[in-house]
Design brief:
- It is globular and about 70 Å long.
- The protein has 18 helices and 12 strands.
- The protein has 2 domains: 8-134, no CATH class; 141-422, Rossmann fold (3-Layer(aba) Sandwich), CATH 3.40.50.
- α10 links the parallel β6 (211-215) and β7 (232-237).
- By secondary structure, the chain is of the alpha/beta class.
- The strands form 3 sheets. The chain has a 7-stranded mixed β-sheet, with helices on both faces. A 3-stranded mixed β-sheet has the order 3-4-5. Strands 1-2 form a two-stranded antiparallel sheet.
- The chain starts with 7 loop residues before the first strand and ends with a strand.
């Protein structure tokens, strides 16, 4: 099949060929074609980026030129195209340029960790407060209404159970593990996921006879371990793929009489429960619907009950700056997603009549979890391709895992296990 690409022109009017004709424009339109830019924007982007990189512990190589600086190397194979994408789309363009193989690195995580740690230095101070002008707003279609949430969840979690099985451990747990020591060995991941799950169940006092609600089933591991303790579990998910595998695992474990896996929006949950657990699901809710989410948690809680919540977090100021901004992650990986701050969780909990009774962070453990996932994914690229995921998808997924790992290694991100309880009466 012959692929055709739109004919782009540079700022001087000269034709600019598509960077990689092998990229399917029907699947990856914004990666296959080059964006339009206004005269001078590409040159300005080059000046700003080179100036910023010169102040970072980073080695920048532009084409065949001698690299400058010291540290992990960012190698730009096609500088004109690279700067053009960034001029047009900022960090979205940066990610699309990686997907198009226009830049690479000898240590991708290290480069991204440097950039994440110095993210405020990449944009001149006078421009930072103008994000609303130069940054793209999130598409309205990504709002997490019941219909929108269904589509957002489908785009990520319904990709393929077989895909996730290639890089997750046998528990099929897609959230931060908790290790006994760091750095972790690959063979420790399964036990570390059990440890994380058990800590959450302990936090919520889940035991024999407990009525447990889980919001966000994943592939069923937490529900299985709760039922094995003697709990009666209702777990809800919006992913048809996850529900199918979770129900199969429950049946194979002989626990179908203790676990009900429901394809249901969290807003439609009914009943009262002694314990509620939700693991890294709040990130898919969206700030607009956080009040509804915490109201559901409070409404579902029986008197004296406990809520165990695991959430990725970021600094409150950074969250406020990015909450309406369309990012590479929201465009390609988690549509509709938004990482809350610890402050936002506390404020929203309080408005729903809940208080934070305990709080523990496991930031470095998430970095290690992501490293192990990334290494497993990289080792199984042939298997990923056999499932029908092309080379551009694989570049996207590698960047996503490395980008996320760098977020925790740079301390831009954290992950918290929180215990929520009824607010003290006044």
């Amino acid at each position: 099949m012959t692929l055709s690409f739109p004919r782009a022109t540079g700022e001087d009017g000269a034709p600019v060929p598509p960077p990689h004709p092998g990229i399917d424009p029907g699947v990856w339109p914004d990666v296959a074609r080059l964006p339009r830019t206004r005269p001078g924007h590409t040159a300005a982007a080059q000046v700003l980026i080179r100036r910023a990189c010169a102040q970072l512990p980073l080695r920048l190589r532009l084409g065949d030129h001698t690299p400058s600086g010291s540290g992990p190397e960012l190698t730009v194979h096609q500088p004109d195209v690279f700067f053009r994408r960034i001029a047009a789309d900022g960090l979205i363009g940066f990610g699309e340029s990686y997907m198009a193989r226009e830049w690479d690195s000898d240590d991708l995580v290290a480069v991204l960790t440097v950039l994440a740690a110095h993210v405020d230095d990449l944009v001149p101070a006078p421009l930072r407060n103008l994000r609303g002008i130069w940054g793209r707003r999130r598409p309205g279609a990504q709002r997490n209404t019941p219909e929108g949430a269904w589509e957002n969840i489908h785009r990520h979690y319904d990709l393929s159970n077989d895909l996730f099985a290639l890089f997750l451990d046998p528990t099929m747990t897609y959230s931060s593990a908790v290790f006994t020591a760091l750095p972790a060995r690959p063979e420790e991941l399964e036990a570390a996921q059990h440890r994380k799950t058990d800590r959450l169940l302990d936090l919520a006092f889940v035991g024999p006879g407990c009525r447990l609600l889980e919001i966000g089933t994943g592939w069923g591991e937490l529900a299985l371990r709760a039922a094995a303790r003697g709990a009666q579990v209702v777990t809800v998910t919006f992913s048809a793929e996850q529900r199918g595998l979770a129900r199969r695992r429950v049946a194979e474990a002989g626990l179908a009489d203790r676990v009900s896996v429901e394809l249901r929006d969290y807003r439609d949950v009914k009943g009262k429960y002694d314990a509620v657990v939700s693991v890294e699901m709040i990130e898919a809710v969206g700030a607009e619907f956080w009040p509804a989410y915490f109201s559901v948690l409070r409404r579902a809680l029986a008197p004296g009950g406990r809520i165990a919540l695991q959430s990725i977090t970021m600094a409150h100021k950074k969250m406020l700056l990015t909450r309406r901004t369309h990012t590479w992650i929201s465009k390609y990986v988690f549509p509709g997603g938004l990482i809350p701050s610890r402050t936002a969780i506390e404020e929203q909990s309080a408005r729903a009549g809940l208080r934070i009774a305990s709080d523990h962070g496991y930031r470095d453990h998430y970095a290690e979890t992501l490293r192990l996932w990334r290494e497993r994914f990289h080792a199984r690229t042939d298997d990923v391709g056999a499932l029908g995921f092309d080379a551009t998808f694989q570049r996207m997924w590698e960047l996503y895992l490395a980008y996320s790992e760098a977020g925790f290694r740079s301390h831009y991100l954290d992950v918290r296990q929180l215990l929520l309880m009824e607010a003290d009466p006044r």
